[in-house]
Amino acid sequence: MSITPHDERFMAAAIRLSRWHLGRTATNPSVGCLIVRDGVIVGRAVTALSGRPHAETQALAEAGALARGATAYVTLEPCSHHGRTPPCAEALIAYGVARVVISVTDPDPRVSGRGITMLREAGIEVDAGALEAEGRHSLAGYLTRQTKNRPYVTLKLAISADGMIGRKRAGQVAITGLEARAQVQALRAETDAILVGIGTAIADDPLLTVRVSGLESQSPIRIVLDPSMALPLTSKLVETAREVPVIVVASEEVWPLSSDAEGLPPSALPGIFPTGGEIGKRRDPNSPVSDGDGFALRQDVGQGANPDPISPLVGEMPGRAEGGTSPADMDSRRAALEAAGVEVLYCNPYHPQVLLPALATRGISSLLVEGGAKTARLFLEAGLVDRIQLYQAPVVIGERGIESPLDATDIPSGFAHTSTLMFGEDRLDEYERGL
Known about the structure:
By secondary structure, this protein is α/β, with parallel strands linked by helices. The chain is built from twelve helices and 16 strands. The chain has helices at 5-18, 55-63, 88-95, 114-121, 132-138, 140-148, 178-189, 198-204, 236-239, 327-339, 352-360, 373-381, and strands spanning 32-37, 40-46, 71-76, 99-104, 125-128, 152-159, 164-167, 193-197, 221-225, 246-250, 343-346, 366-371, 387-392, 401-403, 416-423, 426-432. It has a nine-stranded mixed sheet, sandwiched between helices. The protein has a five-stranded mixed sheet with strand order 2-1-3-4-5, with helices on both faces. Helix 3 (88-95) packs parallel to helix 4 (114-121). The longest helix has 14 residues, at 5-18. Residues 257-323 have low confidence and may be disordered.
């Protein structure tokens, strides 16, 4: 039996349902499931918070005896392996469903195709690929982590009418209006983690949480690219680290001297981290300390830079013998941050190709890059942005503005324009790469 418009209508509802728990199901994907009998939904569920129980078992339990002979609509291929819970394919078989319609097959090698085979061997009719493009979009974080070993990366930029994303030495500058900012809060609520540079963290002192009534508990993990652990202990991020997790990404050059061989950073092991890389031009000593992204204390990442790690200039990295903060001071900073509840991750902040897999090992499937022109450029030039959300507002920043790393006229190749939305006077254009 082929997929019909009737099937697509129910699958669209299952996909909408799956979005309810995006960013809240730990390492498991947020899956939607409907049990339909004679055109009536008799059971529905989304993967539970923290990832268990799965959607299928909950929907089947709600349907009960009505599941026998029914059709199950599932956004992701039912699992076929024994983990902490029995396989969902077994549950569908046990409840006696007659047909299963799937949007996306699971790339997890423990499942891929096996769930479908198990169902068919039990005499259940299976059709896959219903609204597959929409299903893959809703599962983008999970699919990216499974197939690319990194989170799905969204870059969000708000640009003024004169092409600026902020003003130097001005802290937070409101560019978009209330409607657009509310939309960004919703995006944060369905994302696992949010990332900014240390310059943004210091200049703006942001919370980076979800500030919508009722959704506060959905705040993402907050990540700061902070090579020398300069994040102030009095910052809002540190002061709230025990309420919403904070990860400081420190340079391996400041790895604690007390580390033994087994605790050395990955770059100390041969063949894992490249040690070279293009070094951009040095900062003009008369220029502002930060342009809002956290890399102004190091070097500029120029247009056309290669994606290799950018090595700090000799004498500018704290902890080096040639100059900078002493190793003892760095150990003290680390201890103070950790005492406040901040996790310190030693991983080259200038090498997102290595940072993103490290975040994936922590179960982070989706990452929102929000802060700083150079931070944005770093991910763009590494080719590690999957989606761009470009807000364009009618306000003018004017003098001392921080120029945006891109605008609607120079979107990188490989991105397709997928939508345009208006939020008050602000325009949102969204661009995506294919999954």
